[in-house]
Write a structure and sequence with these properties.
Rossmann fold, six-stranded parallel sheet, 11 strands, alpha/beta, about 40% helix, elongated
């Protein structure tokens, strides 16, 4: 799968459709030697985060597609600040994909306000081609798993089960998962347990993940959707409609208090 992403990036560079920015190319199998093969578009900067992020965002604001490689999460505070400063409205697309190697426990949770249209993907480098092919007009951060913790990219990119319970199924986007976890804590103190399932809101629903989603809904019969796509809700209606015990609740940009209240409504 990485091979396909590598070939796609090379083709995009050949056709001058993309810029790649990284502090090092030698240590990254996906990008290795691109800076020597395409020196005008595969740019290398020293490990000065502000330079890396600033050049990438500047190119994106000028209408270029950019792949920015960061080697850890230490750069995200600066990236978040610059994305926040780059909020000039929908008339200024920001087509930038940021790759970061980070285990699930190391992923920061405070990125939701960095840019109004920021999306977060979870998975492996095989997703690079999928994301770039979609030609996004808004910033995307791809958190890749270290090789030592690699699993099924397709499954990881779509679903991550954070908590398991019996009474509710809370489906949430990455940006809202902390609120869902806090609501889970509040509910647990009252003896109400819930599945908390994080979904990558931009990816599709692969067959390897469909079973997890539908089985949770069938088990609890009470789904709550927090900032997840309509396509998921439609899918679960088809797959688990006859097992529903309450009307599904759909919430947008909900706080933990909103999720808690919705849970109380469908439990009672």
């Amino acid at each position: 799968m990485q091979h396909n992403s590598r070939l796609f990036i090379e083709k995009q560079l050949q056709e001058e459709q993309i810029f790649v920015i990284a502090e090092s190319y030698a240590l990254d199998p996906l990008l290795k030697d691109l800076n020597s093969q395409y020196p005008d578009q595969a740019l290398q900067f020293p490990a000065a985060t502000e330079s890396l992020c600033g050049v990438a965002i500047g190119l994106a604001l000028s209408g270029k597609r950019v792949l920015l490689q960061l080697h850890d999460c230490s750069a995200l505070s600066d990236l978040s600040y610059q994305l926040d400063a780059a909020q000039f409205g929908a008339e200024f697309p920001l087509s930038i994909l940021v790759r970061i190697l980070a285990a699930p426990k190391d992923r920061p949770t405070d990125l939701s306000n960095a840019h109004p249209n920021l999306s977060i993907w979870l998975g492996g480098d095989s997703l690079v081609k999928q994301i770039l092919t979609s030609n996004p007009n808004n910033p995307i951060i791809l958190f890749e798993l270290p090789n030592s913790e690699a699993q099924d990219d397709e499954l990881i990119s779509a679903v991550e089960v954070l908590k398991e319970g019996e009474h509710l199924s809370i489906y949430t986007s990455v940006n809202s998962h902390q609120e869902a976890l806090h609501a889970h804590h509040l509910l647990s103190s009252e003896g109400i347990t819930a599945d908390v399932i994080v979904l990558n809101q931009l990816s599709g629903i692969p067959s390897s993940a469909q079973h997890i989603l539908s089985e949770s809904c069938k088990k609890t019969g009470r789904p709550i959707f927090v900032d997840v796509p309509q396509s998921l809700i439609a899918y679960l209606y088809d797959g688990a409609f006859w097992r529903l015990e309450s009307k599904p609740m759909r919430l947008s940009k909900a706080t933990s208090a909103h999720i808690y209240q919705a849970a109380q409504e469908i439990i009672l």
